[in-house]
Design goal:
Number of strands: 0
Order of helices and strands: HHHH
Helix content: over 70%
Largest sheet: none
Pfam family, one: Yae1_N
InterPro entries: Essential_protein_Yae1_N, LTO1_adapter
Strand content: under 5%
Domain Essential protein Yae1 N-terminal: 22-60
Family: Belongs to the LTO1 family.
Number of domains: 1
Structural class: mainly alpha
Protein name: Protein ORAOV1 homolog
Shape: rod-shaped
Radius of gyration: 29 Å
Number of helices: 4
Length: 119
């Protein structure tokens, strides 16, 4: 009679068994999907940061060339800001994206750019 009880017991546990299997499969699928989504977001963000840094580098190079040709074209304050902006670009930790200073540097670059553009 014990074998009949075993059969019924497995039937009673069927819902819990399926729930646990579904949870495990869903969890594994979520891990794989989450990693891929995180990779895509990281690539997009990295590209955007690189694009912005490249834009600022190009602006600094053009401004420095203009300053070399005609130093009187820009005020000393603007020339100083251009030099500081170049230093910030060089200081940006490209190989360490999790460095805590990246947001501070980007904020400073954006501010310097606005100052130069307004001058």
């Amino acid at each position: 009679m014990e074998s009949v009880e075993d059969i019924f017991e497995s039937s009673l546990n069927l819902e819990e068994t399926h729930f646990n299997e579904g949870y495990k499969e869903g969890y594994q699928h979520g891990l794989a999907t989450g990693k891929e989504e995180a990779r895509q977001v990281g690539l997009k963000t990295g590209f955007e940061v690189g694009e912005e840094l490249g834009f600022y580098r190009g602006c600094v190079d053009v401004w420095n060339a203009a300053i070399r040709v005609d130093p009187s074209r820009f005020s000393t304050r603007i020339q100083k800001s251009v030099k500081e902006m170049g230093g910030l670009i060089e200081k940006y930790p490209l190989s360490e994206p999790e460095d805590e200073s990246v947001e501070e540097i980007m904020g400073s670059l954006r501010l310097k750019f606005r100052v130069i553009r307004a001058g």
